[in-house]
């Protein structure tokens, strides 16, 4: 065993390298691929339920509105990649760098807090989603063997603990977040289970020979319950759309000619069009297939029973996607905390010493006590919260609403004002202020409905 000293940790946000040594070869089409891969994920599974709560008019209209919100946000943020000039200025290679340059340290601190809270809650959502899918595989096999009326009741706890154990191990893998194969697998898995959900919904509509559902959506006992569910549906849609947190990282892969902001705007328009078409198909065909009985998760709610092997395969794809996805969202948090502790305690062996273990037939393994302790505690805490609140739609709603306005709307609008030197009470200033205020109301509505749903589910 050998001991090494290090004052740098390999995770988290990196500062921007603008000296020309970093090769940026991305094109319009690679940018489109990155955006679609980043956006389409577990959020697509709740869109049929969201459409069912809102009805045949409000549901599709809400999806279209969020598409517009997302495009406007991307349009504004694309111009903030370089400062002070959007074409010739210095690069801001990540979101928090752009906030720091345009809005100052105080706002960047608030942005960082929100980002890391979003990453943390996404980890909680992934624990819930993964356990739900693993449980669905077991139930699917049970229904196939014993019939659709069999109880086939299984809990979530064992699967959450199993997923947590896997994440404790994977969180210790060096440079896990830089493994290209991880993104490739995540992209393939997300497209696979999303297309399966869309295909099953379409087939079910054909089998039924009718389009189910109504203009008002799923009926409830009273108006208050209807409003709560509609608000929660808005939160779920908010979770499915924005990709603001990683937009500048994607833009940083582009070649500088043509200008990156022009390429990003065009890529965003094409990507959001494709994503919206896909989301409308998943949400509308799911609702058309099941009507008032539309499940919260299209692939685990057992509107579909057969072919059982296809249901199993789709849920297995979700599990594989989220095993890596959990680390993609957790590694930045690890980096922020560990770098802060490294700066605060530069002489601490617990924080900075790495112990190298050499096992037969395996590459050397570097162990750091801080990493083992903090990352294990992090995984345990996300797993514990998921066990306390194992409610898929409600948690997605809270997460989507909590991050939508501040990260997807407020910061891009404010940075755009600074970047373009837009004065107060000008026509453009008024338009974007109204836009920001409307999105704030959407966030408040979604957050209230999702929190109410979370509390009701917990104590029902």
Automatic annotation (TrEMBL):
InterPro entries in the cross-refs: AA_transpt_TM
Subcellular location, principal: membrane
Assigned GO CC terms: membrane
Domain Amino acid transporter transmembrane: 25-455
GO biological process, one term: amino acid transport
Keyword set, alphabetical order: Amino-acid transport, Membrane, Transmembrane, Transmembrane helix, Transport
Pfam families: Aa_trans
Tree of life domain: Eukaryota
Ranges that cross the membrane: 27-49, 56-78, 117-137, 149-169, 181-203, 267-288, 308-329, 372-392, 398-418, 430-451
Cellular localization per UniProt: Membrane
Entry keyword annotation includes Protein transport: no
Protein name listed in UniProt: Amino acid transporter transmembrane domain-containing protein
UniProt source species: Acer negundo
């Amino acid at each position: 065993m050998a001991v090494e000293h290090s004052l740098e940790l390999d995770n988290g946000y990196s500062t921007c390298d603008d000296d020309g040594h970093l090769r940026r070869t991305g094109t319009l089409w690679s940018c489109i691929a990155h955006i679609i891969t980043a956006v389409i994920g577990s959020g697509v599974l709740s869109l049929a339920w969201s459409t069912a709560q809102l009805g045949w008019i409000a549901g599709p209209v809400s999806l279209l509105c969020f598409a517009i919100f997302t495009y406007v946000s991307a349009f504004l943020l694309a111009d903030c990649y370089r400062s002070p000039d959007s074409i010739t200025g210095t690069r801001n290679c990540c979101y928090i760098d752009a906030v720091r340059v345009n809005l100052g340290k105080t706002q960047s601190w608030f942005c960082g807090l929100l980002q890391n809270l979003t990453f943390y809650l996404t980890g909680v959502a992934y624990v819930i989603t993964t356990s739900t899918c693993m449980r669905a595989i077991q139930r699917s096999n049970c229904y196939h063997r014993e019939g659709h009326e069999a109880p086939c009741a299984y809990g979530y706890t064992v699967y959450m603990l199993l997923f947590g154990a896997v994440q404790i191990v994977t969180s210790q893998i060096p440079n896990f977040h830089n493994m290209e194969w991880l993104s490739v697998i995540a992209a393939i898995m997300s497209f696979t289970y999303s297309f399966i959900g869309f295909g099953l919904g379409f087939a079910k509509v054909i089998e039924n020979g009718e389009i189910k559902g109504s203009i008002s959506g799923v009926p409830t006992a009273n108006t208050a319950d209807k409003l709560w569910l509609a608000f929660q549906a808005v939160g779920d849609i908010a979770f499915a759309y924005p990709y603001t947190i990683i937009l500048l990282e994607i833009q940083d892969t582009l070649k500088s000619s043509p200008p990156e902001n022009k390429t990003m705007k065009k890529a965003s328009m094409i990507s959001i069009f494709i994503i919206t078409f896909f989301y409308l198909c998943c949400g509308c065909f799911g609702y058309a297939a099941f009507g008032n009985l539309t499940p919260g998760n299209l692939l685990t709610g057992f509107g579909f029973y057969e072919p059982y092997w296809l249901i199993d395969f789709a849920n297995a794809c979700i599990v594989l996607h989220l095993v890596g996805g959990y680390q993609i969202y957790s590694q930045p948090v690890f980096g922020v905390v560990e770098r802060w502790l490294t700066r605060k305690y530069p002489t601490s062996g617990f924080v900075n010493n790495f112990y190298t273990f050499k096992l037969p037939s395996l590459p050397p393994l570097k162990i750091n006590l801080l990493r083992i302790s903090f990352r294990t505690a992090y995984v345990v805490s996300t797993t514990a919260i998921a066990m306390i609140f194992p409610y898929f739609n409600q948690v997605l709603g809270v997460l989507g609403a909590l991050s939508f306005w501040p990260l997807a709307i407020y910061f891009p609008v404010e940075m755009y004002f600074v970047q373009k030197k837009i004065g107060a009470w000008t026509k453009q200033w008024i338009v974007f202020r109204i836009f920001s205020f409307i999105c704030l109301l959407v966030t408040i509505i979604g957050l209230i409905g999702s929190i109410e749903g979370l509390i009701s589910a917990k104590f029902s």
